[in-house]
Amino acid sequence: MKAKQHIIFWIVVSIILIFFFGKSLQSYSIAFYFVAFLLPVIIITSYFFNYVLVPKYLLRKLYGLFILYMVYTLIISLYLEMIVITLSFIVLANYRYAELTPIFYDIFLLGILLYFVVFLNSFILLIIRSQKDQLKQKELIDQKEKLEVGCLVVRSNRKSVKISYDEIGYLESLGDYVKIISQSNQPILTKEKISHLEVKLPEKFLRVHRSFIVNTDKILSFNKEEVVMNNISIPISRTYKKAALEFLNG
Length: 250
Known about the structure:
Number of domains: 2
Mean pLDDT: 85
Distance between the termini: 26 Å
Helix content: 55-70%
Radius of gyration: 29 Å
């Protein structure tokens, strides 16, 4: 998840916990302070479980170590919850045990609640990872299909024209037309938009400018301002500079 998604998730969790404890304690202000004590324990446990134990042990199929360290994590988190109970006793109950409602010191309930949030976070992360993997797999399949086709098909002069990827030097947008420069043939003009053609082309074709897409296999040299191919200089615009240079520098 991105930072914004993390923040939103924990805000939602906090609101739900405040509502849950507030209804039981009949005081949402006390519930707010109690959640403020409890939430750091939940966050630390959640991130340790999802970003250390899962990738380092579970995903590597080290199940024995995963179970062992998960038990350690459970014990430590329960100890931290005891600290939360102590803080509640000091701050919220003013050292008067009678003012503590059972929900404050029910370590079993707090443990279930803690790991419910941990596993909820883990489930959400699993869905996000799965979506990213599917998207990446789709991109790889699309790239493979493009390479298997081996040529770009465009409409030019009311005909469909096939141009081998290896023959294309670069594409230049000329208002209502796109000019495709190939090595062996005359330039080909098509009314298709350059953004539409960009989607059709394999990964080795790089957008360096609003008006230019280049075949990176044909680049002889480049710097921060331009690429050079067959003694033709093609500018790199500010919009595409970062992505273009990252790709060209490998």
